[in-house]
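Re: weekly structure request thread

Next one in the queue (541 aa):
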Amino acid sequence: MSASTGQDATELARDVVSALLGAGVRDLVLAPGSRNAPLAFAAHDAETAGALRLHTRIDERTAAFLALGLTRHGRRAAVVCTSGTAAAHLHPAVLEASHAGVPMIGITADRPAAVRGTGANQTTDQVDLYGDAADALDLASAPPGLLDRLLAAARDGRPVHLNVQLAPPLVPARRWDDVPEPTELPVRTTPRRRRVPDAVLRQGPRTVVVAGDDAGPPARQLAERAGWPLLAEPSSGSRTGTHALRCYRLLLGAGWSERVERVVVAGHPTLSRPVTELLTRPDVEVVSLRARGRWPDRPFPVAEEHDSLTVEGPDDPAWLDAWCAADAATAAAVDAAVARGPLTPYEVAGAVAAALPPGGLLVVGASNPIRDLDVMASGWGVGERRMVVANRGLAGIDGTVSTAVGAALGRAHSSRKLALIGDVTFLHDANGLVLGPEEPRPDLTLVVVNDDGGSIFATLEQGGPAYAASFERLFATPHGVDLSALCAATRTPHRRVTTREELTAALATPVAGIEVVEAVVPRADRREVDAALKRLAVGPA
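Done, posted below.
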C-alpha cells in the first residue's frame, strides 16, 4: 500500500511515532542517518516525555536484532534506519522475526516517490523490500488505519515494515511538546487461534512427544497426562517436569527410535538429525500441534493436525519408565566422560545451565552451543520460570549478541541473565558490544565457547577424514582473534577461563553490566568426542 499525498517530514514522523506508541511500542532502536532525522527527533522527544525508551546503535543489523530480542522477550520494539544499504541490513532480523512469529517493526526512511528510479543519492527500491516476510506500508503521509494495521500485525505475530517518504526540511522547527500517552499492550508472539475442542488421542501406539522451539507448556502437560517420554529442545519452553529426557538425542541413535510408533510434535524442532529421521519414517504416525511463523506447514508427512490435544488417560507406565532409566544411565555416563581431560564445550554448557537460577534468562546461540546444552541440561522444576530462548526461526548465528542484549533489557525482572554462544557467533555480532555511554545496558554474562573456529562442521559430513586436507580452510576457519583485546576495545569486562574451577568461579561472581566470560576449549577432537558420547547411550533391553 502506498500513500501518494506528501506530508511535512516532521509532522509525518511524529504521526508515525504516535502510531507506534498507540500500538504498544515502548522501545525504539535508532541507527543514525540523515534521511531518518525527523524520526530520530520525534523519538527523542517521546523519550524525553517518558513515553518510550530510546536505544542508539551505529550498525543497522545490530539495531534490528536488538529490536527482535526486545520484542520477543518482553517489550514491543521498533527499529528505525535511513535509506539505501542501511535498509538492507534490517533484512536478516526481519526474516528471523517472520519465521519465528515475532511482531517486530522495521521503519526505513526513504526519499520521496518522485525521485525513485533516478540516480538520487542513497535511493533504491525500498517498497516491499522484505517481500512477504513482513506486512509493508509505503508512507508519504500517515493514513487513517495505520494504528489498526500495526495492531493487526501484533495479533498475527508478523513483522511490519513501514517505508516512510521524508522530504526536506528534515529537522524540526520546534520541540514536540504534545507527545501522546503510550498504550500498554502485551506482546503476542503467537497468533490467536479460534477456540476449538481438544482433539482426543487414543492410547495404544508407543508414543513420544517432540517439543521443538517455542512449543511451550502444552507439550509438557500432554506428555504428563499421557505418561509419554518428552523429547524437548532447550528453547522449547517444555523442558521441565519429570517426563523431559536429557539425552533423548543419544537414545534415539541407540535403538529407541525403532520402538516408536507415534510422535506428537509441537513447536519448531530443528536441532537433531535423529529427531528429523524419526519424524520422516514412513512407519511412524505423526500428530502435529499447529505451529506458527511464516511457514507453519511441517516438512514431513502429518497424519493429523490440531490446535490442541488431550488423551483418553495415562498409558502403560512401563514405556516411560524404560526411557527414563536409559536416560539416567546415559546422562551419568556422559557426565563422567566429559569430566575427564581438559575443559570441554559440553562441560561449559552444563555449567551455564547449572548457573541459571529460577526466574533466570538464558539466550543460546546456534550451531554447537544449543546442541551441547541439549545433551547437558536436565529438566528444571515446573513453575520455576527459567526462560531459555534462541533464534530458531532460521537458526542463523547473526545478531546473537544483540538479541541477547535485547532479551535481557526486555526481561529486566529476570533473576539472572546469561547467554551461551560460540566464538564465531560472537565475532559475527561483536558490534553488539558497541554501546554509547548513555545507552541502556543490562546485567548480562556472555559465555563465549572459544575453540578458534566452526567446530560444528567437524560433526557433519564435511568433517570426515576424506575431506581433512581442505577442512580447516573451507569450514573450520580458524580466526586467532584475541577476544580479550576485542572486549577491551569496547571497555567490556572480560575473563578468560581454561579449567572447570575457573569457569565455576567466573559464573558465581558476575559483574554489573555486560561481561564476557571466554571459555577456551579444544576443537581438534570434536568429531571423536561426539562419536564417543553416542556410544555411551543405553539401548533398549
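The CA atoms of residues 322 and 541 lie 9 Å apart. Confidence is low (pLDDT under 50) at residues 1-5, 189-194.
Next request, please.
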